[in-house]
Specification:
One of its GO terms (biological process) is cobalamin biosynthetic process. It is found in: Cell membrane. The chain has 306 residues and is mainly alpha-helical. It has one domain. It is 74% helix and 4% strand. It contains 12 helices and 4 strands, in the order H-H-H-H-H-H-H-H-H-H-H-E-E-E-E-H. The strands form 2 sheets. It has a two-stranded antiparallel ribbon with strand order 1-4. Helix 7 packs antiparallel against helix 8 and helix 9 packs across helix 12.
Length: 306
Amino acid sequence: MSSALAMLAAVLLDSALGEPRRAHPLVMFGKLAGTIEMRLHADRRLAGLGAWCLAVLPLVALTWWVLSMATWWLWWTCSVVALYLAIGHRSLGEHAQPVADALAAGDLDVARASVGRMVSRDTALLDASQVAAAATESVLENGSDAVFGALFWFALLGAPGAVLYRLANTLDAMWGYRTPRYERFGWAAARIDDVLNFVPARLTALSYAVLGHTACALRCWRRQAPQWDSPNAGPVMAAGAGALRVKLGGAAPYHGVWEARPELGEGAMPDAGSITRALRLVRHAVVLWLVLVILLAWIVGGGAHA
């Protein structure tokens, strides 16, 4: 029950404070990873694996050691803070809601600029529906990456698990690209992130399906997810799009070139309301996870007490 209540406290802390504006540990970790990359980069998979281990494992071990030496109250407080720093639920709304507001006001330029802070595609080339699709896709995918992945690994391994997941996810964002520089060096970061996200992504997709248009979500997950390049983003976004009954995916511009992408979901074209409903879907899924974790902890604790 202590871990379940720590999850609840961390989510409430994130809701109240959002991400730290100054001196976020992940910013400092990014600088550390950049230094490691500069020293160890080579066009070899083994070099990338070594760099990943050097960046991640000492910090995970340090987290475990500090918690193992702490009193119960210090353990609980450090666990709450670690999970709070690993999730970014409130930041999803802080990034996505301005896009929805600008679209609702008919200000496409502001909407393009706002969604440009969420996605890597060329937003200046997007029309209103494509802007809404980009923001909705980002909310659905980052619901898994920035929220549910950390909650899952915290529930499984405590604060060390949340730290492991968040650092691995950060390195995937830094090194996990299929470019000449990272094709081999970033292979380990990308594959490890895929492994760590495999179960959480599917639990996220299932949560979206349960809380939305269930039959449509499951149908889209089954038919459309295998067509997506990412083994984890595919189920999450296909199920999310189906749950919202909205059409996502399709061609998108990157570096001046329109790249073909599979279509996701079915139903209406995305608009400002799609973004708002995606945020609501993620929020409801967070509540569902917390209720289930607390209920399970209560059942297990009651059984152990009996």
